[in-house]
Structure formats: structure tokens, C-alpha cells
Amino acid sequence: MPHEIRFRRLTEDDLDLMHRWLNTPHVMRWYSPGGRTRARVAEEYLPYIRGEKPTEPYLIMCWDTPIGYIQTYRINDWPDYARHIGVDDDTAGVDLFIGEPELIGRGLGPAAIRAFMRQVVFGSFGARECVIGPEVANVAAIRAYEKAGFRFWKEAMVPGEPTPEYLMRLTPDDLLEGDARTGRADAKRDLDP
């Protein structure tokens, strides 16, 4: 049976959950090296929640249960990062993780990414392209992103990052082509304004 994936804006009430997730081994390995204190989680995510920084934060919901975190932003709103990867003004970035360890490897990541692209990134956010940049060694994430339709673009060394990013791109047309291959006929409706 397919999973009902939807998204809910992150709120201040979710910070304890984010703290727990950011300190689980599978998230710490790639997203939160060394873990984060509760104070650090609040310092990082409250500006997104309050709209003080240009990142839109969401919980990934499966049915009515939060299972992970996903965020999007216009890459050019972060000039230091944008300078190192070189994208158009209407390019979004996306970052995510599945927070619950028992849900890793069940196909929820690619399903969540595709739904988020349709509903948010290419839907309400209005981006014309999306870029994601896992670490080169994060093979599981790269496979999940490929299943969602992303394709390798280039590697880029970003100052402050320990290893190069394996940059991957996706456009609305790429998403529709993938939907056509999988038989999702109603997907175009989600992308139409």
C-alpha cells in the first residue's frame, strides 16, 4: 500500500523532536557530525521557523506521524554557497533526512523527495530547478536521490565542508518524465500553477 506523504511547517514545538533526530547515529553521520545540543538546535532552526533566514523548514509526515525533516531555499539567498556551485536565480536547494532509524531503507526518502518537489519546490516555491549536494561518500543518499529523479551534475568543494559535494540536479521536466515512467498520471496537475 502506498504511503501518504505530506509536509507540515516546522514549529517551535518540534525542536525536541529535531534534537532527538539530530543526535541519532544515522543522522549524525551525514547531517549532524558530533550531534547537537538542544540550545544549538534552537539557535539553528528558530530563525527558519520565524522567517528570519531564507530557508523553509518542514517535517516529513507519513500519514500523521513525523518521520523526518526537509528544507528548501533559493541557493542565491546564500551567496557564499552560491558562489561555489554556480546556479541560476530560480534554483532551489533541498536538504533532508529520515529521522526514525527503523524507517531507513523502506523507500520513504525517494517518495518524500518526489512529493516535496511536486508540492513545494516546483509548486508553491516556484523554482525551475533544484540542486542537492550529498557528500561523495554518502552512497545511500545518492541512490535515494537518483530514485527520486536527480542526476549527477558535478562535484564542488565548498569551504567549511570536509569533503566535496556530489551535486545533483532535477527540473520539473525530469520529475514529469520519472512520473510518466512510474505511471503517475496526475503529477502534472501538481506542477501547474
Strand and helix order: EHHHEEHEHEHEEHH
Instruction: Predict the CATH topology.
Output: Aminopeptidase
Summarize the biggest pleated sheet: 7 strands, mixed
Give the total of beta strands: 7
Number of helices: 8
CATH class: Alpha Beta
Instruction: Name the overall outline.
Output: globular
Q: How much β-strand is present in the residues?
A: 15-25%
Question: What would you give as the CATH superfamily?
Answer: Gcn5-related N-acetyltransferase (GNAT)
Level-2 CATH architecture: 3-Layer(aba) Sandwich
User: Spans with pLDDT under 50 lasting ≥5 residues?
Assistant: 185-193
Strands ordered across the widest β-sheet? 1-2-3-4-5-7-6
CA distance, first residue to last residue: 29 Å
Q: Helical content, roughly?
A: 25-40%
Domain unit count: 1
Specify the structural class: alpha+beta
Q: Compute the gyration radius: what is it?
A: 16 Å
Question: What do these coordinates show?
Answer:
By secondary structure, this protein is an alpha+beta fold. The protein has one domain: 3-Layer(aba) Sandwich (Aminopeptidase). It contains eight helices and seven strands; from the N terminus they run βαααββαβαβαββαα. It has helices spanning 15-22, 25-30, 38-49, 79-85, 108-124, 139-148, 172-182, 187-191; strands spanning 5-9, 56-62, 65-74, 91-98, 129-132, 151-156, 165-170. The protein has a seven-stranded mixed beta sheet with strand order 1-2-3-4-5-7-6, sandwiched between helices. Helix 1 (15-22) crosses helix 3 (38-49) and helix 5 (108-124) packs across helix 6 (139-148). It is globular and about 35 Å long. The two termini are 29 Å apart.
